[in-house]
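Anyone? Bumping this.
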Amino acid sequence: MEDENDLDLIVIGWGKGGKTLAGTLARAGQRVAIVEASKEMYGGTCINIGCVPTKILIHDAENHAGHGFDPEYFDTAVERRDKLTAMMRAKNFSMLDTLDSVMTITGRASFIGPRRIRVHAGDETLELGAKRIIINTGAIPASSDLEGASIGGRIHDSTTLQHAPLPKSLVVIGGGPVGLEFASMFGHFGSKVTVLDRGPRALKNEDEDVAAEVLSALNDVDVEIKVRASVQRISQNAHTARVYYEQDGAPQDIEADAVLIALGRTPATHELNLVAAGIETTASGAIKVDDHLCTTAEGVYALGDVNGGPQFTYVSLDDNRIVGDAILGSGKRSTADRVAVPHTTFTTPPLARVGLSEQDARTQGLSIKVAVKKVAEIAAMPRPKIVGDARGIIKFVVDAQNDLILGAALMHVDSQEVINLVALAMRQGVTSTTLRDSIFTHPSSTEALNEVLGSFAR
Ligand SMILES: Cc1cc2nc3c(=O)[nH]c(=O)nc-3n(C[C@H](O)[C@H](O)[C@H](O)COP(=O)(O)OP(=O)(O)OC[C@H]3O[C@@H](n4cnc5c(N)ncnc54)[C@H](O)[C@@H]3O)c2cc1C
Ligand SMILES: NC(=O)c1ccc[n+]([C@@H]2O[C@H](COP(=O)([O-])OP(=O)(O)OC[C@H]3O[C@@H](n4cnc5c(N)ncnc54)[C@H](O)[C@@H]3O)[C@@H](O)[C@H]2O)c1
């Protein structure tokens, strides 16, 4: 490839947004190259080491609740995960590789100039240029400068722990979504789990009544959460690991078979040589983008985790829509038009959230009404009882003046589905009364809205 305009598009990284855009533009007749660092990562984080493999294990762990520590059962779940992720990886690869106008390249890309990259693939080096470049390199586990916290042996990040033997005891450092999902999952598999978080309380961004329900469910599988816990150092030997921390000023330590470090994920920019292309980063290391996901270099866009936005697969997918619209459409889409983006943390039952919590709304001085009910007390919601798990809570925060939904916290079986309906209602300006009076199938979890939205307590 000699001429910088040889290609129409280069995508660096096989993430959700980039692979989708590569396919769309190739089908529209553009000449596209997609570069992925590892053949184990075709399809990106989500299907290989993120959402999908963890949810497979979480599902199988849920089916094992109450059956104790059972490495054989765990190994069977791991086998199922490996089969499914291998199938998805192959499918992801062939979806692009079979398109005539797409060149798939396995190697590590870095910039050598504006809209020009070099790819190292084993002993081979390739230089490519294009009219447009998409950076979609995702994020990597945040490293910790704590003594003894390098990944290896008994110290894990979310990727290595998925490939380790089932630990009898596990210490999780960090009580964010990664930390809590792994804690809940290993608790269900029968491991003794302790979570250490430095925050003032667990799930500090959630209302206390909602957080209490999640904690109670974690407690059901013997997960202990220690807050205000500041980890000082970690040590390990052939038999065990030990985490030294301070809680409320008092030194403590805890022993475990394995330690998971889950302190966030950092945009993957370290090997991109962004300076060569005039691409700037923010103070937190993300690629600087505007509302249309343009970087500071003309013709270069950043999609997904690497641009510092919310770290969710479906946000990367929406990033693809914005850039797709800029290239093929009206250019009107932007991150500024995103409303009510929901998210779900897959503890068991899952906690699904959208919009404001009650504490957020009160801090903002909004005039609100709040409807809240424990799932076990919702008569018109037999579905959780049918599937044998009636734990949880449903909470709505509604504007007292115009009846519009400002936020919701749903913690119950199926909440990862119901939240999408609530988010759509928020986006479309559907009032809580309309949602309350809607026809929903029966028996479903959605029909809880008929009852909960008719019971504003405060
Ligand atoms: C354990 C875990 C569970 C998660 N669960 C969920 C969930 O349930 N739901 C959800 O929505 N989100 C979840 N996430 C977050 C979600 O996985 C990410 O937000 C999403 O995958 C990010 O996608 P992306 O498009 O930014 O790129 P990614 O999918 O991260 O892809 C980036 C790709 O770029 C490649 N790459 C990096 N550098 C280079 C280079 N120099 N050259 C070539 N290739 C390169 C990488 O190998 C990688 O394949 C989870 C994350 C983790 C870690
Ligand atoms: N279901 C999902 O959608 C899902 C699941 C997993 C991950 N993710 C994505 O992955 C991203 C990364 O998740 P994460 O949980 O790794 O990071 P996070 O930043 O969300 O949480 C990190 C936690 O670690 C705590 N912490 C930070 N430093 C600490 C220290 N020194 N000692 C003790 N505690 C400390 C913080 O208080 C915080 O609670 C999330 O932002 C999320 O978007 C999504």
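Late reply, but here is one note on the structure posted above: The pocket of flavin-adenine dinucleotide (ligand 1) is lined by residues 12-17, 35-38, 41, 44-46, 50-51, 54, 108-109, 136-138, 158, 178, 268, 271-272, 304-306, 311-314, 316, 346 (CB under 6 Å).
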